[in-house]
Design a protein that fits this description.
Layout: H1 2-32, E1 50-57, E2 67-74, E3 77-84, E4 89-97, H2 100-112, E5 135-142, E6 145-153, H3 164-172, H4 177-190
Antiparallel strand pairs: 1-2, 1-5, 2-3, 3-4, 5-6
């Protein structure tokens, strides 16, 4: 009888030990996996205070002739601006209504185009790069604090690793075509 109790005791101890090992294995294996949070994807930023922006900075010229085109999209509006000089004086702007749902879908689309992908470069930012052609800046900000800020140039330099032409087209489509064409024509005339 004593042998049977000893065997049962050992089996119970082994079962408990197996249970503890199984429990710790599951705990540690799931803690090493990163479960995506809402903000691991751009759609997690579809809220008031965040803005996605695409900037086209024209070639480097005299301050009075330099122009920059900015398209900003947030949860309430899409805005296009023509900026004069290097100090950022807004010459002209138009805004169009937007919704949180539309903004969320827009951010998901940017995500699928690699808006947050970066490439390694030794250059800190776009200023002064590709001076005779265009510089492009891709930003996502939260109350004017940059979450992502990447850039590329017409010369092929920069740290933006996404699909440049598709991202540009997606931003352009947030503004009525006729309005965008008018702004871009003014930018190109100054270049």
């Amino acid at each position: 009888m004593r042998v049977v109790r000893t065997i049962i005791f050992l089996l119970v101890c082994l079962a408990m030990l197996w249970f503890v090992v199984l429990l710790f294995t599951r705990i540690f294996s799931t803690s090493n996996q990163t479960t995506p949070t809402a903000e691991d994807h751009l759609s997690g930023y579809a809220r008031v205070g965040t803005t996605a922006q695409f900037v086209i900075d024209a070639p480097i010229v005299l301050d009075q002739e330099h122009r920059t085109l900015k398209i900003s999209v947030d949860s309430s509006q899409s805005k296009i601006e023509l900026v004069s000089g290097y100090d950022g004086s807004v010459v002209r702007q138009d805004t169009f209504p937007n919704t949180v749902e539309s903004y969320g879908i827009f951010l998901r689309s940017l995500d699928s185009l690699g808006f947050t992908k970066s490439k390694k470069t030794s250059l800190a930012d776009e200023r002064g790069q590709c001076p005779l052609q265009y510089r492009f800046v891709y930003r996502l900000s939260d109350f004017n604090r940059d979450i992502y800020r990447l850039w590329s140039t017409s010369c092929g330099t920069g740290n933006f690793g996404g699909q440049r032409s598709s991202v540009r087209t997606l931003f352009q489509r947030q503004i009525p075509q006729k309005t965008y064409d008018s702004y871009y024509k003014t930018l190109a005339q100054r270049a």
